[in-house]
Fold:
Amino acid sequence: MAFPQTRMRRLRASAGLRGLVRETDVLAGQLVLPLFVTETEPAGARGGDRGLPGHEPIATMPGVDRLSISALVAEAQEAAALGIAAVMLFGLPAEKDEQGSGAWEDAGVVQLATRAIKQALPELLVITDVCLCEYTSHGHCGVLREDSSVDNDATLELLARTAVSHARAGADLVAPSDMMDGRVRAIREELDGEGFSQTPILAYSAKFASAFYGPFREAADSAPAFGDRRGYQMDPANGREAVREALLDVQEGADMLMVKPALAYGDLIRAVKRATRLPVAAYNVSGEYAMVKAAAAAGYLDERATVLEILTSLRRAGADTIITYHAKDAAAWLAEQT
Structure:
């Protein structure tokens, strides 16, 4: 049998050859580490399961903790030393109310945490999640009408107020995750009016009502007290709608876009990137993280190889930035490869 002149295996024969023609890279500077910060000292403040002061381990997310502000700064320092580009902050307030007023307090947990990180690490980017679900007593992402549905337009003012309070505290990017219609425009106008025209918006443009969020809701204590979020988060079956959402956010002033979750949505990462030509972030969410951790702990797969393959796939799909709980481990593994 005569072989053709073209042999695809020639450039796969050694690590050097494979590296020479590799199409997709993953760098620590493309990763964002999400962090959970508490207003009060966490239950594990005296040591937690791993003997770390200011840490409260999250059972469904091995290796991820709720952090006091001092512990958060130490975690951010570790991330920065590994070359990670940014941290994303999620706050757990001491008290909640119907409107989620803790979200925009100047002395709120995210605001205090942002100031602490920027004072210690002025070059590390701080991204803040802009939503009300962690601050409302009912757990929904906006204020409620009498019929218990979320009032879209009444929520916009509160989201904009929250974004400004984050910018005032020193946030480098604000990231609205609520999925209210018109929130990007409302936030952009409020930021500009308050003198923060240079603060970028990273919009959760295609955020789906996903089964992969379960561990996060425990971590952030943000599960709805009743009902669900399918009335404002997207139907996982709808791809064209995701592109429409992204294009609307572009029109309203978004600087970056996000697709969330990541693993089951590579097609939409690619579609959003092609349609908008804006930087796109993929959020490798809590359930995706927990699945890998559980499988690795059971010996079903190699954690390092699996994580790096997942991150590479998201970059290949078109993600410029990846938000992932694996960020510290991945950055350390990538450093070992260089």
About this structure: The longest strand covers residues 31-38. The first helix runs from residue 15 to 20. The radius of gyration is 20 Å.
